[in-house]
Amino acid sequence: METDYNELAKKYDLTRKENIDTINRFFENISFYEGTNILDFGCGTGNFTCALKRITNANVYGVEPADEMRQRAIDKSEDIVFKKGNHEKIPFRDNFFDFIYMTDVIHHIPDIGVMFKELNRVLKQGGSLCIVTESHKQIESRFWVKYFPTIVEVEKKRYPDIPEIIECASNNGFMISMKDVTDIDYKHVISQKFLILVENKGYSMFHLISENDYECGLADLRNDYNKQIEIEYNHGETLLWLKKSFKDFEILSVPDLLDSIS
């Protein structure tokens, strides 16, 4: 069963917002200036894109293949250029961006090798790429697996695991510079916000399990919400920081280098 992202766009902003903690982690690793060119690859309805523009006043761009998602992003800001594109074709010239990020996008990409080649093309030499995703271990630890256990295998088939991402990136012109892993564990009661998100199928994964599995899980979730039962909560996120490498350039020996400049 495929997800209709144009249909999902109608509910997306009711349940999905930018993650300020993730944005703060961008700032820990990247210096932003007014002339910095930033790409939000797979920007959806532009929540992260608009937040970064508002905070940095850099040149922020968004690329999104789903027309309805992209139009909602366009409606949010006149100061950001949003373009139609995908992992096969990013509609910008070579070596244009200083920083590219993608949040919860890589599991939607059918061929990450093609994606890395295209991201490498539009990223400046020495530029940074940040991929925000989850490891398979983090998927297994999601607290809502208790309610929707069949989601685990569905998600692990969609999400490339971290070693696979790193290997593919390394084969397509990137060097891994840092792996930033966050795992938060604590007890809390189910929030109304999360219940609404599930009721609206605000995550694409809810469209990929059977309706029976979804309805049974939702019933159990509502039951725990109504009883205000305290549950073990886990949230995991992995940020992979990559640099465009110089390996595509010929490395000259000292004599060859001297010959090349004489």
TrEMBL record:
Keywords: Methyltransferase, Transferase
Transmembrane segments: none
Stretches assigned to the Methyltransferase type domain: 39-131
Molecular-function GO term, any one: S-adenosylmethionine-dependent methyltransferase activity
EC number: 2.1.1.-
Listed Gene3D superfamilies: Vaccinia Virus protein VP39
UniProt superkingdom: Archaea
Gene Ontology terms: biological process: methylation
Pfam families: Methyltransf_11
PANTHER family: TRANS-ACONITATE 2-METHYLTRANSFERASE, TRANS-ACONITATE 2-METHYLTRANSFERASE-RELATED
Name assigned to this protein: Methyltransferase
Organism field: Methanosarcina barkeri 3
